[in-house]
Design a protein that fits this description.
With 204 residues, the chain is α+β, with helices and mostly antiparallel strands. The chain has helices at residues 2-8, 23-39, 109-123, 152-155, and strands spanning 19-20, 42-52, 60-69, 73-80, 84-89, 92-97, 100-105, 132-139, 142-149, 160-165, 171-177, 183-193. The protein has a single domain (20-202), classed as Clam (outer membrane lipoprotein receptor (LolB), chain A). The protein contains four helices and twelve strands, in the order αβαββββββαββαβββ. Strands 1-8-9-10-11-12-2-3-4-5-6-7 form a twelve-stranded antiparallel sheet. A hairpin with a 2-residue loop joins strand 8 (132-139) and strand 9 (142-149). It is globular and about 50 Å long. Keywords: Lipoprotein, Signal. Residues 1-20 form the signal peptide. Pfam families: LolA.
Length: 204
């Protein structure tokens, strides 16, 4: 459970300066991202997660891989330095912690919202203004979308979400900032879109 919470409540701000997008640029970005989302059925990638805690002098690095299939299947697997796997499917969360398998329903309000956020972030379908206040900016070669949760319960765990999109309107980094300002940074690499995914990825 501790590792699950570390995964669910992670990710962070960068120091790269960002330039706000104009209304026209925001509209064009949304249109392009939504269009891209419609054609993405699956995504596979490797990732590095860097967890930063103020009381530690060095960030904690973990490595892994993910697989996502529409509408709601997500396999998130840490491979180094420990073995830990989380499978989200519909309203169920299954966890394999070094061989110890447990299952729970995602009926907890916060789990549901974070699960939906993860899936929406990967698929590019996250422009829900009822759930988040949003700002859009250019950051280096990426588009940075900042999401501020409106839900008071979620705000206890996540104060701000940063999503970085590459030039192809695909998420390349996902960041969740905790109220304490501790954070982690997840960077995706070796992304594969619309390739066949073995169903075993979504089963324990």
């Amino acid at each position: 459970m501790k590792k699950l919470l570390i995964f669910l409540i992670s990710v962070a701000p960068l120091t790269i300066s960002a330039q706000a997008l104009t209304e026209v640029q925001i509209r064009d970005f949304k249109t392009q991202t939504i269009a891209k989302n419609k054609v993405i059925q699956t995504m596979q990638a490797d990732f590095i997660q860097k967890k930063h805690l103020d009381f530690m002098s060095k960030d904690i690095e973990t490595f892994g891989k993910m697989a996502f299939a529409k509408p709601d299947k997500l396999n998130w697997q840490y491979t180094k330095p420990y073995q830990y796997r989380i499978v989200f499917q519909k309203d169920k969360i299954t966890v394999n912690d070094a061989g110890n398998i447990s299952q729970m329903k995602a009926d907890n309000k916060v789990f549901k919202k974070i699960n939906n956020l993860i899936v929406s972030s990967i698929s590019g379908d996250m422009f829900n203004e009822k759930e988040f206040a949003m700002t859009f900016a250019k950051s280096g070669k990426s588009i940075l979308v900042k999401l501020l949760p409106k839900d008071k319960t979620l705000l206890k765990y996540v104060s701000e979400i940063h999503l970085y999109f590459d030039v192809d309107s695909v998420v390349e980094r996902v960041k969740l900032i905790e109220p304490s300002k501790d954070y982690a940074e997840i960077l995706f690499s070796n992304k594969k879109l619309n390739t066949k995914i073995d169903e075993a990825n979504f089963k324990m």
